[in-house]
Amino acid sequence: MGNQKPKFYAVRDGREKGVFTSWETCKKAIHGYSGAVYKSFPTREEAQAWYNGESLFQSSIDTEELNSESSSFPADYEVYTDGSFVNGQYAWAYAFVKEGRVHYEASDVGKNPAAATMRNVAGEIAAALYAVKKASQLGVKIRILHDYAGIAHWATGEWKARNEFTQAYAKMMNQYRGIYSFEKVKAHSGNEFNDYVDKMAKSALGITN
């Protein structure tokens, strides 16, 4: 323990904002706060720079810490999302899962030809947006399980939204803050429901294999 390097935690959006010197203090600032935006850094200078919006580093966030925060979110459903792309068209799919069973699902071909320049990412974005809209209609909270990191990072501000589509996505997700959290899953890893929505998105495009 004596050789453990110190960490500094910057919280841009949480119950309290600022730079903290321990995970426990940081956790108090973000625990139970939906859409909290925070990162860990090896130095105070990097943490302060990121907090001020000056850093372009992609410092790592402790996966264990993020998973702990996501698991504490009181979600009514786990919602698996995915996108697909072929021949200039993209598609999206989501599935609301509870107690090992799909309760709601939807998929379709994307309606914005210009967005197709982002290939399957356009479908990933559309899936998350349709999922939070459905959750809002149902009056429930959801945990979005996604396999593309940008789905969470654009919404939380971890990644800067640099084009009109990611900017529109971030803006829309901000309107639904409080009803969702994120959890990343590994693609094509044998996860039953991740594979399920992957097949749904492909099927919408006529891909059968």
Record the strand order, biggest sheet.
6-5-4-7-8
Task: Write the CATH architecture name of the largest domain.
Answer: 2-Layer Sandwich
Specify the CATH homologous superfamily of the largest domain. Ribonuclease H-like superfamily/Ribonuclease H
Tell me the span between the first and last alpha carbons.
50 Å
Main pleated sheet: 5 strands, mixed
Helix-strand category: alpha/beta
The percent range for strand residues is 25-35%
Succession of helices and strands: EEHEHHEEEHEHHEH
CATH topology term of the largest domain: Nucleotidyltransferase, domain 5
Describe what you observe in this structure.
The structure is a single chain. This protein is an alpha/beta fold and 209 residues long. It has two domains: 8-52, 3-Layer(aba) Sandwich (Ribonuclease HI, Chain A), CATH 3.40.970.10; 77-205, Nucleotidyltransferase, domain 5. The chain has helices at 23-30, 44-51, 63-71, 120-138, 150-156, 164-175, 192-204; strands at 8-13, 18-20, 37-41, 77-86, 89-98, 101-109, 142-146, 180-184. The strands form two sheets. A five-stranded mixed β-sheet has the order 6-5-4-7-8. It has a three-stranded antiparallel β-sheet with strand order 2-1-3, with helices on both faces. Helix 4 (120-138) runs parallel beside helix 6. The longest helix has 19 residues, at 120-138. Mean pLDDT is 84; it is low at 55-68.
